[in-house]
Each structure stands twice: as C-alpha cells, then as structure tokens.
C-alpha cells in the first residue's frame, strides 16, 4: 500500500468514525457517568467488535449476508432489539451522580467492555459497509495480509481516538450533566431507540 492510498484511507476512516453511531453515543454516555479513564473499557470493547466485523467482512461474510437476505433481516432485528434495550435502560436510569462509580472495578470493566462490544456488533449492515469500503483500498496485485494489517490498525486507532475524544468532552462537562442527568439519559435513550427503529425500518424496506 502506497503512502498516498494509506493517507486517503485514513481521511475516509476519520470521516466514518466522526459519524455518530451507537459506540460514539456509548462513549458519550459512559464518559459522563464513569469518567473518560473507565470509558476506555467501553471503547476497547467497541474496538474489539469492529475488529471482528472487519475480519469477517474481509473474509467474505459480507457477501454471504448480501446473498442471504433472510439471515440479514434476522441479524438486523437482533441488533435493533439490543439497541432498544440499551435505550430502555438509559431512559429508566437515575440521574448521573458521582456515586455511580462505586461498582466493583473488575465487574464494571467487564460490563463496560461487553456493552461496547455488543454495540459494535449490533448492526450487521456494518459488515456490508466494511466489505464495500475496505475493498476500495486493497490492491489485488499485492500481498493481502500486510494490507489487511495496515488497514485494520489504521481504522481501529482512528476509531479509538475519536471515541476517546468524545469521552473526554463528556467527562469535562459531567457536572453540568449531573444537574440535567435525567434529561441527558432520556435524550441518549431516544437516540438509541431511533437507531433501533431505523434498523427495523431498513430491514423491512
């Protein structure tokens, strides 16, 4: 992969990472609630989920899903159900408070990592997107594995930095969000439910 192709991919990946999605929303919510340092576990879970999606898409699962629309619809509904569940939890959650961080550290880390990972895996259309998007930057005349490593590493690093930045901003304004905690939770819940509804709508279209 030439430097020019890599730079073009990096810019495209940055633009993709800046598009709001479930993982960015989780980074925002958890950054405000738990602080940006603990939210690294949420972000890491999402990065792991994206790594799985990129890997399977580049191994051809995206094409399988495209050829099997019923499987695609099933996965979309499962993803929508998870997003709706996240929205319900946030909507009914109490306002943010400093005491929210008193949960056992080990358990908290596992929970945050799991939520980040499931949020990344909740939208199977990402498989198709990665299949089409990443294929534009693969040179079929060169070894696949080195290109794969460069592409995956670049994308995941950019995604991590963007989500980390979102978490830092949320952590900085957490004391404002404490006073408006219920409203903040419900706004985030509404976005999650909207994403779930969009996923269902797309599966029926």
Automatic annotation (TrEMBL):
It holds the Pfam family LysE. GO terms for molecular function: homoserine transmembrane transporter activity. It is a multi-pass membrane protein. InterPro entries: LeuE-type. Its main location: membrane. GO terms for cellular component: plasma membrane. The chain crosses the membrane at residues 6-28, 40-65, 77-96, 117-138, 144-162, 183-201. It is found in: Cell membrane. Keywords: Cell membrane, Membrane, Transmembrane, Transmembrane helix. Belongs to the Rht family. This is LysE family translocator.
